[in-house]
Amino acid sequence: MDTLIRRGRESDLPALRDILNHYILHTVVTFEMVELSLENRKTWFTQFREKGRYQLMVAEKSGATIGYAASLRFHQRPAYGPSVMTSIYIHPEYLGQGVGEQVYSSLLDNLKNEQEVHRAYGLVVLPNQGSVRLHEKLGFQAVGLLHEGGYKFGKYHDVRIYEHRLEK
To answer: Where are the domains of the chain?
Structure first.
């Protein structure tokens, strides 16, 4: 069955929480350190809209939510408003099957239609060849490196900054 890409809904939150918690507990691809609760995800979900800067797209296969891509606030200071941070997580069983490209492309296409969004940024903890390839394939360019920018599992990790120029 094909993958369906659609807007996120509150009923997706348990699956999205479980996907992200896997990465929190077992990998360094996120610098979250503590498992997230359903209440946390409900609060997180309130920022998303069908239009505007902050959007949530999910991937669904055979009725199951298997991943998401989201645009989030980049920085607290108002001048950063036209910039968004992107986030993508796919259920580990579906990695390498094109799901990430589908859901991330959908998010980026939506953002390109938003006048109030100028740039999208993604942070990739290194090494992570899959995420590097995905960002570059979708038109992101590496614009910086945070040397030992995060500390998780007893080790420092470099973080590459990717920028997507959302040309209108």
So the answer is: 4-122
